[in-house]
Every structure is written in structure tokens, then in C-alpha cells.
Amino acid sequence: MSDKRDIKFDKEVPKDARKTAIRLFQQLKNQRVRLTIVAVCIVFYTVLNVCTPYYSAGVIDNLLSAIKNCVEAGTSFSISWNPLGRQMVTLFFLYVLTSVFYHFQAYLMASVAERLILTLRKQISSKLHKLPLYFYDGNKPGEILSRVTSDLDKVSETLQTGLLKLLTAIGTLVGAVAFMIYFSPLLTAVFLIFTVISLWVTKMVAKKNLECAADRQRALAYLTGIAEEYYTGRDVIRAYNHEKESMETMNSAVDELRNATKKTDFLTNCVNPLIRLLSRCSQAAIMLLACKWMLEGRMSLGIVQAFFQYINMAAEPLTETSYMLNSLQSALASAERTFHFLDAGEEKPDTVAPVLLKNAKGEIAFENVSFGYVPDKMLMKNISFTAKPGQKIAVVGSTGAGKTTLINLLMRFYEVDGGKITIDGVPTTDLTRKELRHNFGMVLQDTWLFGGTIAENIAYGKPDATMEEIKAAAKAAKVDYFIRTMPQGYHTVLDNEAANLSVGQRQLITIARVFLCNPPIIILDEATSSVDTRTEAEIGKAMKKLMNGRTSFVIAHRLSTIRDADNILFMENGNIIEQGNHKELLKKQGAYAALYYSQFA
Ligand SMILES: Nc1ncnc2c1ncn2[C@@H]1O[C@H](COP(=O)(O)OP(=O)(O)OP(=O)(O)O)[C@@H](O)[C@H]1O
């Protein structure tokens, strides 16, 4: 049963942030011009952003004194170009220019980030085809998918928003505080005292919030785990009368999640109003002092409004720095995971001078083949056998005996550790993988049909096949009639994992796929219990027809179907312990005979 103590949540921290940042930057080297323009825009934006409020203080004060002069002189108010009109237009253009620099860099940065993500996605896509199969054995599909989606999205988002904020934060903060001190050291001190208090409060709440969020995550994962467990085991739970216990465990998990969520929600919802309250208090205190000084003539209105602009400017980097650093850290962790994936060991490259195998006859030989999934633990030792063109080879053995492994080696999904496998006398390592696999057709129990039309699915191995060829293949597999009864016939789109087809129909379509490719060698994994007897007979007939004239390897689950095999490989613990035809093996009175008599006696 799932145990919530087993569920761990790692904080998103890169192992080597510096190395990852440098590597990420290297990926941007073809975008140097754009990045330089972005850097220039950021510098101009920061300088203008910090200097404009200072300029605005003078303009507002001049405007105010012009209004005052008019009121005192009893004349109507007008603005002359020199100096007030000029100053106001300059201020307007300063704001416009600041905004232009900001938006231009944002536009460029978005295109830099998306180009980078496109490059990385292309690298991942090409990597997926170069990875050896054992990589997929050790990694969950969800993990690999998240490299392509959420990890790269996070990098892009941080490059576009977080990085700009971080780069402008120091300049803005230093500039704003410097101007504030210049205007009034006392008001600046009031602002800084309140800021330090609110930073401290945020830190305390954030720490507590992080703990509660981890508790909530744990409680949620536990609840999801047991819900899934109970759902899949519902029959067994009922059969053993464990409904009450399951319900109690479920209720306590739901309760725990409720408590954890309550705490997290409270902390999340209370932190913002608290910070806002502190910021209002600080602004009220500053405003009180500033108004007093204004009344005493010690401070002008222009300076007060400029001071408040600086307060807003300085508060943002101060309160957001920790968020920005976290998001940068988490983006670097994402980038690190992506690079780790891109660095994974690839399949041994194809030979540089490959042999071309035109019209293979289909003679296969295993010569003293040894293999282990784990380097120092050999599963197969010195396996040898030969399959003459057109022969039927049956591979038999209990579960885990090594039947699939034998096929994996034949198809070069894994590389042998010793000995060699030849096809028409040519070692498979002397061919390119593409050339080798071109000679094989596979019909497995787990059929794989993709989201496309039935015709496209049949033509998967020969995309340029004509409709006539596709129909002929379907006819050969005895699935043509069924396809024609579908609403759009061959153009019926299969989606949702071909849920509208039965297991047997899916298998017949994959048989048609092999008929179309017409390979000299085929691999068949016999259907077990997932189809009814009639369908099984239909599949059996189609397979028999497919085997006709081709070298075939049949992974057999029932001994009744392999009596006519030319060679039966009886496997145990990864090795072939007996081989020969049905009669020879019965005569031997060995493991095959024992199994045969146990099934048919
Ligand atoms: N990717 C892998 N990594 C490590 N060990 C593996 C891997 N695949 C299979 N094995 C191990 O190799 C042995 C042979 O497995 P294989 O899948 O070839 O057996 P099988 O005869 O096809 O079994 P089944 O009839 O159940 O499919 C088993 O002990 C299995 O646990």
C-alpha cells in the first residue's frame, strides 16, 4: 500500500547553476546581435526610469509656481513654450522613450527566448531517436515529456520576465534609493525601516508556507495514490470485505488534505494583505511628514510626488527579489535537467561503411551470442542457432525466459556483448539499423496504432503506398471487409488509442501493415487471452498466410500452434536449453516434452 512517508519533494535547485547558466548562454551565441540590443535597451530603460521622476519634480514645481503667479496676478493661465512648455513636452517624451525601450527589449527577448526553446526542442527531438532502448527502460515517459514541455516553458518564461526584472532590479533600486536620500534622508529611513519589517514578515510567512505547501503536496499525493490503488483493486477489496477499512483510510487521507490545504490557503491569502497593510502604514507616515514639511515650506509638491514614484520603484525589486531568484533558480534547474537529458549516452553509431543488403533471402544465424542488460550480469551465454530462408522458428519458454530479449537482439534494439548475429551471412553490425530493420516485419500483442486514418496506419511502413496496395494488404490480412463497414472506410480516423476497434481488429490491421511492407523476415508475438476463439482463429489464419515463404520467428504461448515449426527454441533463464523440431524434442524426453505432456496429457 502507498505510504506517504515515501513521497519526497525536492526543492528546485540546480546542482551547478554556473555551469548551466554558461551552457544556456552558449546556446544563445547565434543570437548575439539581438542580445546586445536587449542589453543596450535594458541600460537605457533603467537610466531613464530612474531619472524621469527627478526631472518630473522640477516640472511639477515650475507648473505649480506658474499657476500660483497667475492666481496672484489675477490673469488667465497660459503656458509659454520656454521653459515650462518645453519641460512638459520633454517629460512626456521621457516617459514615452522609457516605455519604448521597455517594450522593444520585451519583444526582442521574447523572440530570443522562443528561438532558444525551439533549438532545444529540436535537439531533444533528434536525441529521442538516438537514445538506446535501455534509456527508456529506466525513465518514465512522463519525465521525458516534461523535458520537452514544462521544463522548457519555465526557462522561456524566466528569460522573458524574471531575467529583465533581475537585471534592472539593482540599477533601479540603487538609483531610486540614491534620489530618495538626496530628497530626504529621514523619509528614506522611514521607508527602509518599514521595508525591512515587511521583508522579515514575508520571509517568516514564506518559510511556514513552504512547509505547509510540502505537507499539502504530500497529503495530495498520498490521497491520489490510495484512490488509484483502491480504484484498481476495487474487486479484491470487495471480495475480501475490506470496504470499511478502505473507506476509513480514504476518509483520514481526505481529512489530512483538508487540514493541510486550510493552512496553506490561509498563509497564502494572509501574506499579501499584511504586506499591503505595512506598505500603507509606511506611505501614511511618509505622507504625514511630507505634508508637514510642505506646509512649512521645507519640501515642494514636485519632490513629494517624485519621492512617491521612487517608493514604488524601490519597493518592487525589494519585495520581488526573492521571487525572482527562486524563479531563476528553478529555471536553471529545468535547463540543467534538459541538458542532462541531451547528454545521455546515445546508441552506438552505425558502421561508417555499411553493407547494402538488397533482396535479403532471410537466413538468420546466432553465433555464440552473449548478452546482459546489466554489464556484469550476463543473461544469455553463447547462444547459437540458424534459421534457413522461409523456416518457421518458434521461441518457447516461461515468463522471463528471454524470448523478447532474443528478438530485441535480432532487431538490434540492444547490442550483443559477445558473438554475432548474421543475416544472409552479413553481421547485423555491418548494416545500418535502418537497412537491417527494413528486412523485418513485426506483429506484437500490444498493437500500436496512431491517431490517423486506417489507410495511413496500414501504410506506416510504406508511406508512398497506393490505395490499391493498401487495400490488397488489408484483403490479405482479411480485414478489408471490416474496414469497408466503417463510416469512412479506409479514411476513418482512429483516435483515442483506436478505442473504436477491438483488440483483434487492431491486430489484423498491424498484420496488414506487414503484408504491405512485404519483408523477408517476420516476428510474431502470438495473441494470448485477450481475443475470443473466433478472432484468434482469424488472426492465426492471417499470420499463417503472412509466414508463407518468409523466415518467421514466433513467440509461442501455446504449444499446439508450433507443432509444424522447423525449429523450436526452448528457453530458460535467458539461454536455449533445447532446440529441434516437435518430433525431435519429444523424442529427447527433456523440458519441452515434459511441458508438452503437461499441457496435452
Ligand atoms: N530492460 C531490461 N532491463 C533489465 N532486465 C530486463 C529488461 N528486460 C527484460 N529484463 C530481464 O531479462 C529477463 C528476460 O526477459 P524477457 O522479457 O526477454 O522474457 P520473456 O521470455 O520475453 O518474458 P515474457 O513471456 O513474460 O514476455 C527477465 O529476467 C527480465 O526481468
Automatic annotation (TrEMBL):
It comes from the Bacteria. It is found in: Cell membrane. It holds the Pfam family ABC_tran. SUPFAM superfamilies: ABC transporter transmembrane region, P-loop containing nucleoside triphosphate hydrolases. GO terms for molecular function: ATP binding. Residues 37-330 form the ABC transmembrane type-1 domain. CDD domains: ABC_6TM_Tm288_like, ABCC_Glucan_exporter_like. Keywords: ATP-binding, Membrane, Nucleotide-binding, Transmembrane, Transmembrane helix. It is a multi-pass membrane protein. InterPro entries: AAA+_ATPase, ABC1_TM_dom, ABC1_TM_sf, ABC_transporter-like_ATP-bd, ABC_transporter-like_CS, P-loop_NTPase, Type_1_exporter. PANTHER family: ATP-BINDING CASSETTE SUB-FAMILY B MEMBER 10, MITOCHONDRIAL (PTHR43394:SF1), ATP-DEPENDENT PERMEASE MDL1, MITOCHONDRIAL (PTHR43394). This is ABC transporter ATP-binding protein/permease. It comes from Dorea acetigenes. The lineage of its organism: Bacteria, Bacillati, Bacillota, Clostridia, Lachnospirales.
